[in-house]
Amino acid sequence: MVNLVIYLKIKFDAKDLIKFLLIEKLIASGSIDQNNISYRMENEIFTEGFYSVITAQTKYLLFSEIVKAIEQKIGEEVPIHATPIVGSSNAFDQEIRINTNSV
User: DSSP H helical segments within the chain, as ranges?
Assistant: First the structure.
């Protein structure tokens, strides 16, 4: 199991993406952090970006399928990473197993 973190540009509807991923059974649940500000250096210039950050729970083996589905739906590269869930309650574990595609 993993937590996905998806940095979605503000111009896209984060709720719509979560709904799509839930319907496709690619994630078990998700939340949105609106108006997240991200800072980075690009060509030695300090930049600021505004995102909706989606955090979603799923199975690790669905990661590649999720990335592909998001790229097809959004039409551009979307920063996505996953962190492992190293422990969880039985209820949480069952929620992910029941609400996502079998792999």
Answer: 14-23, 63-74, 90-99
Residue with tokens 């996502």: 100
Q: What's the one-letter identity of residue 51?
A: Y
- Strand 80-84 to strand 2-9: parallel, antiparallel, or no bridges (unpaired)? antiparallel
Q: Give domain limits for the chain.
A: 2-99
Local confidence band at 87 (pLDDT 50, 70, 90 cut-offs) = very high
pLDDT > 90 in the chain, percent: 95
Please enumerate in sequence order all residues whose Cβ is within 8 A of that of 90, keeping only pairs 6 or more positions apart, or say none: none
Residues 6 or more apart in contact with residue 25 via CB below 8 angstroms: 99, 100, 101
Collect all residues with Cβ–Cβ distance below 8 Å to 86 and sequence separation of at least 6.
none
Residue 56: which of 2, 8, 98, 4 has the closest Cα? 4
Question: Which pLDDT score, from 0 to 100, does residue 28 have?
Answer: 97
**What mean pLDDT, rounded, does the chain reach?**
95
2-99 has CATH 3.30.70.120 classification: yes
